[in-house]
């Protein structure tokens, strides 16, 4: 079966917390283009992060699963009812699965979900200017380059 056919998104719960997730965040290759690279991550720090996200009405966090295995995270964050906007953030932690179209598919799902919600009219996303993979993911999903600030290229998509 195609990789994409086996991708599922599940709303995050505390059961997602695992050493595997912590290891992704401490892997310099995975976080090379993220602020996460400046911190040491632990199960405790991730428990705190997850607790905060699960209690945050401006965040919808999902686990990305491939063939039932947790392989990454995607978030509609900074949901702002005044601007009808949200920010898409994603991480495929399993490096062996990079380049198979997973992030492109996941962002497409986030766009569809935002449309269905009908309360989000603008999606934004930021990618390090060197993060070719992430930039391609956004362009493939019809995001338009907006401004650049502190080496982050911001993109927007009106939905
Ligand atoms: C960047 C990332 C999200 C890409 O995910 P992915 O599932 O590999 O992306 P896709 O397979 O959908 O790739 C989309 C395109 O980018 C290309 N691509 C992916 N990774 C790439 C890389 N490191 N360098 C160059 N191109 C890359 C793919 O070949 C594909 O190109 P194509 O459409 O011309 O075939 C993933 O590597 C990742 O999660 N990295 C760590 C966290 C991160 O950087 N998150 C994004 C923060 S903005």
From TrEMBL:
Gene3D superfamilies: 3.40.630.30. Keywords: Acyltransferase, Transferase. One of its GO terms (molecular function) is acyltransferase activity, transferring groups other than amino-acyl groups. Residues 7-159 form the N-acetyltransferase domain. Belongs to the acetyltransferase family. RimJ subfamily. This is N-acetyltransferase domain-containing protein. It comes from Thalassospira lohafexi.
């Amino acid at each position: 079966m195609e990789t994409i056919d086996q991708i599922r998104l599940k709303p995050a719960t505390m059961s997602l917390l695992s050493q595997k997730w912590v290891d992704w965040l401490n892997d310099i290759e995975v976080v090379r283009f993220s602020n996460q690279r400046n911190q040491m991550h632990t199960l405790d720090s991730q428990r705190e992060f997850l607790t905060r996200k699960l209690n945050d009405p401006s965040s919808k966090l999902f686990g990305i699963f491939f063939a039932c295995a947790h392989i990454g995270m995607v978030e509609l964050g900074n949901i702002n009812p005044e601007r009808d906007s949200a920010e898409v953030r994603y991480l495929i932690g399993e490096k062996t699965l990079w380049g198979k179209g997973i992030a492109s598919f996941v962002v497409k799902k986030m766009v569809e979900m935002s449309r269905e919600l009908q309360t989000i009219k603008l999606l934004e996303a930021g990618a390090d200017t060197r993060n070719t993979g992430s930039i391609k993911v956004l362009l493939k999903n019809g995001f338009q380059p907006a401004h650049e600030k502190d080496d982050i290229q911001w993109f927007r998509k009106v939905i």
